[in-house]
User: What shape does this take?
Amino acid sequence: MTAINAQDERTLTARGWVRVTRGEYTGGLADLRRAHEVNPNYAFGLIGLAFAEATTGLGHEAEAHAQLALRLSPRDYGSGGIGLARLVLAMAHFTLKNYDEAARWCEAAIQAQHRAPIRRALMIACSARTGDMARARAEIAVLNSFAPDFIASVFRGQNPVFTRQEDMENLLGGLRLAGIAN
Assistant: This one.
């Protein structure tokens, strides 16, 4: 990669996001952590960092950074920040096996962006893990109404939500518990 300004939190955040989405989690996390060092009050950078942490199983760190981002920018609807921070909190609690809290944050994330399939899939797994099978069935119906192949793509490995195998197995197990066969 080309050298960038190591004192510019926006550039570091952008490169970190690109790296994370390309599967370069170590480099992406390093860029996002550096962006946070440069400007600890940059909410979008914090959300990016929290997302990368949640994806890689660093649930406690992800929770702390997402909560801080929400405190710094509580009305950030323009960039999708609030909805993404809520998704990160759901993911973080899911990796920590705090399913009730994960479901609460899933609900908030769904309210912010109701047609984002990962939010629904995570809610299905959380609902099943907490024994709320009625909610799981309802979420399956909604998800299938706008993204009928999404769950199958998660099972095929085309849409990995987490990088740690144990977190993916936990998600897939929750989906199976909800009655979804792969």
